[in-house]
Write a structure and sequence with these properties.
By secondary structure, this protein is of the alpha+beta class. It is 39% helix and 20% strand. The termini are far apart.
Amino acid sequence: MTEQVLVIGAGMAGLCAALALAPTGREITLLERDPPPPGGDADQAFADWTRRGVGHLRHSHAFLARLRSVIRDEHRALLDDLLAAGCREIAFAEMLTDLHKTRYVAKPIDAELVVLTSRRTTLELIIRRYVERLPHVTIRSETFVKALAVETAPDRPLKVTGVVLENGETLSADLVVDAAGRTSGACEQLTELGAAIGEVSETAGILYFTRHYRLRPGQSEPPRGKTPASGDLGFLKFGVFPADNSCFSITICVPEIEMEMRKAIVDRDTFDALCRQMPGMVPWIEPERTEGVSKVFGMGDLHSRWRDLVKDGRAAATGFFAIGDSLVRTNPLYGRGCSFAAVSAYLLRDTLAESPDPVARALIFHDKVAAEIRPYYDNMLEQDRAAIRRARHALTPSYRPGLRARVLKSFLEDGVNIAVRSDPGLMREALRGFHMLEHPSAWLRRPRNLAKVMGYWARGKAANAAAYPPQLGPERGELYRAVGVSASADIERLAAERA
């Protein structure tokens, strides 16, 4: 008999579940709380689509190479649809610096290191329309899931048998996939019923602010110059994200403790003034080239979260799987949320093929997720913790780094970064980890690569001068004064908290 699958949510994780499971012949029903997209084009979707369940719908998005490869290999027609709708592919060769280009020799792996970028509304619109055409898939919009339908029995894991809708209707299923995202309450319900679900969570330490722009008629994107349009000033991160149909977005990440900037940046004029302080972004927002087409969208409450539905070898529930943000929640800075959702969806497909036993399936899925996703999650936590420390140091005038911190900073900035900016082979190796094609630290653990990095580090700044980018932006005090934000208020507040 064909298994019946209910998927809670038709956002990116739910759509990935349909892409993974529909070709297996299972009957898939996606239950989505929000209304369907409007019937028009990508611009109408951006302007009018209401998605209460997706707080980051109008923030910058890009699909890492891992997810782009999944779409290409599993659903080539979908990739064609995305490109036809204006989504962009950014190839490895387009990411190279001028220094790289003097030594670059193409290799087959370069065809895998491709980023797919677009407005999130365009990506989701096209994927949804493709999924709606797949055999065995039904999407029910404006259908709110109130709770899981659960059977309990002594000395057995909870058995999820379906869902209960807000209108009181119960839908039965062989499998329930929670793809409802970070606001899902399914795991909390199972915990209240006695399931042992492990969960760890910590703040990402930042807030996101995004504004969208469009090229004026007849204008084109500025050429990639020596000064990057993305960077990290230590107290502020920023980036330009090319999108579809002559659109692009700029995202600025502000540390949680920078309260004054958090309040000021939501103003469009302040946001644009900040952008004009970053030399690499100036060409992107020249009035004769572009126009702002949105307000400044803010996004807070950014926490990383990892859930384990298996504890001490015992499954918390059977007939139930969480994927995407319902299972692993990440800092959007690394662009891995959609990729995690897709990877977990396809791991679920593989799990179901390996065993028909409900308990075995829970254990297999848990192990696959831990092996495939956990290394990237842990790597992200390390980077977030380091960024939080740097942000606090920026508000502590008396801070002086110790010897170990100075050496590590030099190794990263004058060794690793310079080596990657100089050697196209090392950049290729580093991007394989970033794009989830191998363990994120694997490239630097290879003796040959580490020896190259150490060589660049040992040469010193003078010999590596050509690899250093120009100054990405002003120092904190200068930047804040330029945009009319107090540079001292948060320093004084933090000092008072310490006292």
